Amino acid sequence: VVATSVVTFASSFSRTMPQSKQNSTAAAALNNSQLGSEDEADGPEHQTTGNFAEDYRALCAESESFCGTVRTVTAAPDLPVVPPKAISPTAPSAEDGEGEATEPSEPPTPSIKTSEARPKEYFDPSVELVVAKDDSEVKAMHVVGWRIPESSFQALLWTVKGYISAGHPCLTTLHFASAGLTDSMVTTLASTLRRVSTISTLNIHSNPPLAPLVLSGLLATDAFVGPSPLITLSVRFCEVSDAGATEIASELRKNFTLQSLSLFGNKLTDEGGTRLASALRINRTLKVLDIGHNAVGDATMAEFELALTEFPLNHDEIIARRRLLLIAAGVDDGPSDEHGDSRSGMRNTIMSRKSSKSDLRKGGKGANSPPKKGAKGKGAKDKKTPAPEEEKEPPSSPLIDPEPRRGERGQLFINGSWVLNCFNISRNNLTVEGLESLLRIALYQATHCAASDTEDPPTVLQGLVSVGYQQRGPIADADDVVKQLDDIFRARDPRYVPPPAEEAAAATE
Known about the structure:
Blueprint: H1 2-16, H2 19-25, H3 52-63, E1 69-74, H4 114-117, E2 126-131, E3 138-144, H5 150-165, E4 173-175, H6 183-196, E5 201-203, H7 212-216, E6 232-234, H8 242-252, E7 260-262, H9 270-279, E8 288-290, H10 298-308, E9 310-312, H11 315-328, H12 343-362, E10 405-406, E11 412-415, E12 422-424, H13 432-453, E13 466-468, H14 479-492, H15 500-508
Helix pairs in contact: 3-5, 5-6, 8-9, 9-10, 10-13, 13-14
């Protein structure tokens, strides 16, 4: 009885301990371990077996960390979309009795109460594993109801890494909502994601503010490991500032795997919003962008107008375009500076050619002059001829537009991104000028989509399909613009179902 009381008290006390004290009591086996390092000697002694729950409990026991409750939830299968049926009340019959109406053909949907949908155990500190109904493979993992200590977080990442390494690639989603993640924890998480390369969805919303470089590290490419595997990233309500948005935009210019980014409910202004918009000049893989409930304004929308229609190349982009064209032609392989300027490499090549020509004119040995027959020296021994290097394929970049448009002042214009389909900029500080920029985007894309259908073969262009642009309050003199936007995006949104009156009017016409 005494032993049971001690265990119960220790378990309850570990839940109420501050996070700093829980981390200090954790063993050094998992504390501050680099999950991305190739040296497995720093890892835990427990060898993962592929059973997620057992491995996680064993690793927490090894590091003396609180593991919470591990529970399994069955994922609901994808149901086919069935149109709702109209329920028409029927008149009472003699068989049903007087004053009693016949029951409707379909029972009404019962109201779901909070106590029934989420029992008390749901709010206990726990790790929730989502599995398919017909399979025991873990497909998603949720940390629910607690600020996870760093030692438990590292044990969880070791479990994820071991589970995927054991031949379970179905685990693709991680949710750490309101989990109290710190900079060091997110850095370790980013390193782990690049190692396992199967996690495509990450949700870290409602966590404390993170350093800008730490946040952008989730999208960064490691020179030794590879790019980030994330396809969907949600950073909602994490107090992301303009500095964080700037770092994310810098990585978006080099990241070509992310397709969905949510920065809803942060602290972005026009400084960070314009940086995100300018990143779409280069990034052509992002399909969903949510920057709603921030403080961006008309300047951000004007930058999006350039990135989503057509834009003139600036100085840095022109230099980068020249370098890419030279690489594609096999002329320049020299180093380049931070702006993509390859003039230093070209200068070195020209100077080396001039020096070799001058040596040949003087009768001396040039850099490429063949040695005399019978000459012996340090280099007279037979050497293996190095295999010819494979030709480098030119990087796919929108800057290499085969048909750029030349402006009146000699500027080069290239087409913007047609990949972005869903865009949310609602609950911001847009005025009628910002909505007019959005209208010009919609009209430009609608015109070019109609023109592409007449081509042979037709060019696949889609552009914006679903857009959220409702602001916090009414906008003066914006009724006509809003009406035009509603008409355009209703026709383009595949989810929009017109009411029966509109269907009847369309059929009559």
